[in-house]
Amino acid sequence: MSQTTERLKTLPSLRDSIIRHGLEARKALGQHFLLDPGICSHIASLGGTLEGRHIIEIGPGPGGLTRALLLTKAETISAVEIDPRAWPLLEELCDAFPERLSLFRQDALTLDATTLCPAPRQIIANLPYNVATPLLVGWLRQAAQWERLILMFQKEVAERICAEPGSSAYGRLAVLSQWCADCSVAMTLPPGAFSPPPKVSSAVACLVPHKNQPSPALFKAMEQVTAAAFGQRRKMLRASLKSIGGETLLDRVAIDPTRRAETLTIEEFDRLARDHLASRS
To answer: Would you say the pTM of this structure is higher than 0.85?
Structure first.
């Protein structure tokens, strides 16, 4: 990767580029820039060797993580950025690496990221915190398309993704995530690692999708079941699931109707979703 290193050396430093382009993080966009090259390099390494892989980065901002990804063996990198203030800075990187880096000036929430590059694909990103959860749920709906997701969240959100049944953090996000993927917290970062520092700590979650994925119809059924179950999480399941079958549904899958949503395992939610789908067919 020596040629990449040499090309990066010909560009202004990350901090100089930010100053030159007047790029300040905006709270309204959920931006907290990650500038430490060591941290960015470590996040990039969580995807494995990346040789032959196509990487999608959401919200690259000034390009700190982008530069680290360029130093890997990734085949291509697709950077998706909605903020026009960052485009000139990112275009400089694209001009230096036209064969590997592409900039997509789009809103990630309305974009089918699978169209940006061929498989095998990974998403590696320091996500804008205000849209991180809906982005993740959207990618879980198409989990079979991803080899791995390496995503920076607020620490609380990463813990919710990986939470175990019975814990206070266990909820809809944990069920959807762990139903589709093996989930783990790969690293945590203090507020001071970012510019400007957020009010909370952050964490990188690693999601490796399971080989067998639910159909779109089954995923929708699981969304309905978990929305009902955790929408009134302090109620017994016979009450919280009343809108989708209540005790009748629970009896069919042999789950005690006096239990609460946070006590159910992923396998039990899977049974509920499959039966809910079958009952509507």
So the answer is: yes
